[in-house]
Amino acid sequence: MSIHHPNPFKAPFRPNSTLFSSRLKLGSESTREGVDMVAIVVAEKPSAARNMASALGGAKGNYKGTAYEVASLRGHLYEFAQPHAMVDSSLADAYQKWDLGNLPWDPEHLTWKREPQKNVADVIKALRAALGRGAEIVIATDLDPSGEGDLLFWEAIDELGFHGKKFSRMEFTDESKASIQKAFEQRRPVKSMQDEGDYRKAMYRSQWDFLSMQFTRIATAMGRQSGQDLVLRQGRLKSAMVSLVGDQQKAHDAYVKKPFFQNRFRDENDVMYTNPDEPRFDQKGQVPRQYGPSAVVLDGKSGKKTAPPKLLDLASLSSMLVDKGVKANLTLSTYQKMYEDQVVSYPRTEDKTITPEQFKDLAPLVDKIAAVVGVDAGLLTHRQPRSTHVKPQGAHGANRPGLKVPSSLDEVEHRYGKAGRLIYEMLAKNYLAMLAEDYLYEQQKGHVEKYPGFVGIANVPKHPGWRAVFDPDAGDDTAEGDENESGKGLGRTAEPFIFEGANKRPEHPTMKWLMKQLEKRDVGTGATRTSTYSEVTNGKAKYPLLTEKGRKLRLAQAGEMSWRLLPGTRIGDLGLTEKVYADMRDIAAGTATAEERLAVVADWVREDIVTMKKNAASMRAQLGLKEQVVAARAEGVWQAAPGGPKKVAFKKVWSGHEFNDDEVAKLLAGETISFEARSKRDKPFTATGALGVGDFRGRKFVGFQLEVADKPTEWSGRTFTPAEVTALLAGQALEIDGFVSARSGKTFGCKVSWDAKAKKIVPDFGSGDEPPQSWCQVTFTDAQRRDLAAGKTIQGKGFISAQGKTFDAAVSWKKERGKKKIVPSFSSRPNEH
User: Which helix (H) or strand (E) is 439 found in, with range?
Assistant: First the structure.
């Protein structure tokens, strides 16, 4: 079915909303006399609004002849509604169900309707009032390379209906006073939302990621068809993380050590001399002993140096802190608090360098920062900007200390906890290392005089430089150091020896390893990598994809299944983000539209359904899972649906009976039908019922609903006697034996009562004040139950465990973990028969 409405991709703003006309009216009314001289400066968050107000002279006022008022968002005030809420009501059911038959979605069906986030009603109310007080609205959200700041501004304007205003854009590299003032004075006129390339590309990325929810539905369907009721979340970054970790984990686990033996030399300073042409042998006894001691010949010396490490992004910082026991989510939340207090810089930056202005801002604070983190300021002699670290281009600049310098690390820890202390110390030392001199060393090269093919290299440290300030690999026993570093240099005599080596084992995946792989492939920004990593490793989440144990990273159950489903898929392609970013650049430049680039997603969904189905067969074989037969489904318009006729789909098979076409037609018409079915214990019975709404684990579904008798007749394989029926209907609770467990086939007894409203038997297994009638297939006598109720211990014989083993035990009736239960004790080992 095709739903016709204005194209949401090409419209200047969202015209398909019923609020459209009222939005324009609201916007135009706000230009009334008395407000058209006020510029409303809209910041991205309250902390940014405070910085704007501080720079301009207050929350409202007049700055160099321009009346202004500072208002604030709080990040994204709105989010896309659920898919079924974005389509015509006739399609809602198909877009809500996770059945593969309902995929792919058609972007032309989606209205891209938004709804407010939770707990932002007060922010929206204040923003609406502020926007109504001025004719010019100043965009003062962050300048993100992804356009995210523009997106969250324009979605609020779109929802609140203020498109009729005059707009301008403040463009600033940071939230320092000078930057804000300059940006306000030089704000750029903005014609409309759709004229802004940053908005267009950010909206496209947001829409693409929304459509990628389909890949989660595909993977989840494959899991459920394999008997695993898990949600297998997919996405550009999530799937990349799973693919990388899974591949590396497999390589690490499959490693087989292959030793080799080879002739080498070593001098008295422990410098090794190797010959690339020297043969390798599988066993030590095979190595010929053909060399003797020899003098070392020094071939030359040369001065070498290495520059300080690059400035940190949030992913690198978080990786280092994970090694110190700080989880990624704690790093994110703590860093955000510190940023809001201006103790550290903006967190969600993509920059790896800082601007000359940012370098200049921190220059007067360097000695003070050094004192806080215990760095000798005398080491910081390179006070001029390094071209490798300071560049004119950039936005927020790399992560670094803020302009508010704490008095001590103890103060930082007092305000932000241990994580805050580690964050500040690491950021500060990394930044200060840039101001230290290069690490200097002398490289000596030489050879074994008698056997010149054997060459040795010694790197002799001469000046520590930045290494005395910051060591990025401190405490990381997996980091590779300089194997040629030698404090003494080349020795004078080299002795032959048989070297034992082996193929190198692939590194076990860790957060630091994963972040390096993602950075190498340009997948996500440092902040996005960190936040997504925090999400997929969250141990409190229902279906985490990855698990952390110390530094080590492994696939969780949902991750393991996802990894086996991803090979060859579009969503699992590590180059996907690069493709999306290329699309964003084209859309921002106006050489492509979101409609054109989103159209391909439907084809990718079709391809991935086919690919994941093939991968699922392999996954089941590898994990020992069985394919679950998916019940056939009947579809049609349910005439008796609550609220009126509605298109539905329901299981065509119920309790071993498959509805024929005539029965399906009657059910859809709201009629009651009867048919022969089989119970869980495979006994035949006549089922009577109609189509209705059921509930399974809190989820509503449409399906055949069995007509329930008005009185108790049978429960758990036992038919009630007429006297028992009468007593149960009278509201009595009865102690009855002879019930049969559908799971184990074993008999049991318990107290039962009849719930007249729900029309069902309610069992009581003795969790109240009275002991159960039986336990482990042994029925207690009335005397034994009285003793148990009195708190006595009784001796029982012939109990049968769940594993079918017979045992004797002394049992008592006592409370454990807030619930009374039979508790056994053993004087000797249980008898096994």
Answer: strand 439-448
